[in-house]
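Hello forum,

I keep getting stuck at the same step: I have a sequence, I want structure tokens, and every attempt I make locally crashes halfway through. Rather than fight my setup again tonight, could one of you with a working pipeline run this one for me? It's a single chain of 171 residues.
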Amino acid sequence: MELIELIKQRRSIRVFTRQAVEESKLQDVLLAASAAPSAGNLQAYEIFVVRDARRRKELAAAALAQELVAQAPVALVFCAHPALSEGRYRERGRSLYSIQDATIACTFAMLAVTNLGLATTWVGAFSDEAVWKVIGSPQGVQPVAILPIGYPGERPRPTPRRPLKGLAHEV
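Reply #2:
Ran it on my machine without issues. Output:
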């Protein structure tokens, strides 16, 4: 699929079928995430793969009762790892670059999901503490996004976008 067409076809999917995600497709998604650019190529992020149904249910509760997280057969939790970036970039690495690294990796994963015929939506509303309990993450790692992944159970229409004239500014 051409990149621009892929980007245009991507939708936020909140309903998933029961069909399992093939391991090869999940590995391709993780490889795409790991190929994302990062500050100083430090990859100051961690990805937690949540397949267990009980843990996905707990993750859905941590995500303010967003049941779509439990409904998807797998969820990825992208976390910033500030200490990996702080050594080289000090405060800016800790407070910004590590978060950017995690979000870029998550975006690459989203595009790979779409390209593979799977579906997802970005989940950013959650309790950090509750997510930490579910994933057992090391101290100092900050959850940034949850990406539930599965086969689409809906086909939403494109949502309106801001016109480029009001969004992009020539300076």
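Residues 82-115 form the longest helix (34 residues). If your local run keeps crashing, start a new thread with the error log.
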